[in-house]
Amino acid sequence: xxxxxQEIIIGAVIVYMVFCVLTGLxxxxxxxxxxxxxxxxxxxxxxxxxxxxxxxxxxxxxxxGGPGLVYSIGVSSFWMxxxxxxxxxxxxxxxxxxxRMIAELRDCISLPDIxxxxxxxxxxxxxxxxxxxxxxxxxxATQILAMALVMQAILSGTEMFADVxxxxxxxxxxxxxxxxxxxxxxxxxxxxxxxxxxIMIVAGFLILVTAANVFDGGMQEATSIxxxxxxxxxxxxGAAGIMASLGWFxxxxxxxxxxxxIITKLMMNKNISDNRSMLPLSLFGYAMAALxxxxxxxxxxxxxxxxxxEPLALPDDAASVFLSVxxxxxxxxxxxxxxxxxxxxxxxxxxxIGTAALIHDIPKAIKxxxxxxxxxxxxxxxxxxxxxxxxxxxxxxxxxxxLVAILGAFGWGTFxxxxxxVVAVGLxxxxxxxxxxxxxIASALLINFVSQLAGYTFPYGVSGQLVAFVxxxxxxxxxxxxxxxxxxxxxxxxxxxx
Length: 498
Hints:
Elements: H1 5-28, H2 34-39, H3 46-57, H4 60-73, H5 78-81, H6 84-105, H7 111-119, H8 122-155, H9 166-212, H10 218-229, H11 231-234, H12 242-253, H13 260-263, H14 275-305, H15 318-326, H16 329-367, H17 374-398, H18 402-408, H19 412-425, H20 434-454, H21 464-482, H22 490-497
């Protein structure tokens, strides 16, 4: 069996990609309008939405970067992955009910539609839409590059495809992603998310079992090895220190309620009452998938310290080396399929919201109406956005490694700082004003972009994302308090009373 490892892994990935293509064809028959394309006509059940929400949270970063962080800085990154569980609760309690109600009352098909209705302001719609487009470009470029690099690593291990190029891998992976996103829109996206989420849950559980059996004493022995070598890395704040850990607490704990690709899915469930079951379902799926992040990182660090394997060339190699050394080929195939699932579930969500911002929200904010024949242009712009992001990814890889990094600065932290105050706080505070919202978004974009572009490091290990988040919150509340109290539309006022 071992001699067929690469063939088994490739087979698992091919089966998954064929499923994505077939799902796109099936979903195309159910996609008849822009509402269907962007929010599935608000007709999805709780299990589908729950799996779509959690699978969009964990991207390739969770399956590759997460174990690498644990390997390099110890338990510091636990403050990202564990605290996100609190983020789900914050998201559901502050956002889920009201965003779904406003979506139905005003026939909203995007997050900028929601904020425009809440604040009665096209300026707020425009700022949120621009934030989404900027963030999507960075996220998509990095995700497409991650897909291509993983595919290249898998194919190059076979004799037939040993010389496969990165451009070819970008073309193959992007083609599958584009096909099912264009044909089926968000309907294809969420139903592939169901399988993607299931694969991620299974992979997380099986990896935990495998990791626990690497050492005779299980995970306890692994942590003891790390503790004896460098106690700080296994202490509560890890090697990154208290300020970085607390920064991640706020950015990832509260920031999940500011991620547009996640909260947009809260508009898609058929019944508002489904929220009661969606929260525990999403939490369960996320917790199971996150086991991979934690268990691989700990075991790989302990294995290197104990001399079981050689030190890694790069921390991000932790997951791939673990799969090649400690797992059987079938489990490796499942996990690699899970890796593609994680990357694609995030990528398709960003393609969808980025397209909505470009063809629906920005034109509506500028001209007062979206483009005509939205469904047709949604499919065209989806292709263009994916191709442009793939081009950025390749250009960054071969020519300018800072380009995607700069765009990537408008990632999780920028979404958290820009959107959390405006949406999570704004949907629960009648005093929030349009001026406060515009100021908060502008400050978050400016701080994140300048700190990334200039490479500025804040004192005491404070992250730029935390500075942007705190500044945005303070400005949002402060400007709202000093400006005239907004007069809300009667239906929006009633929603905020509930």
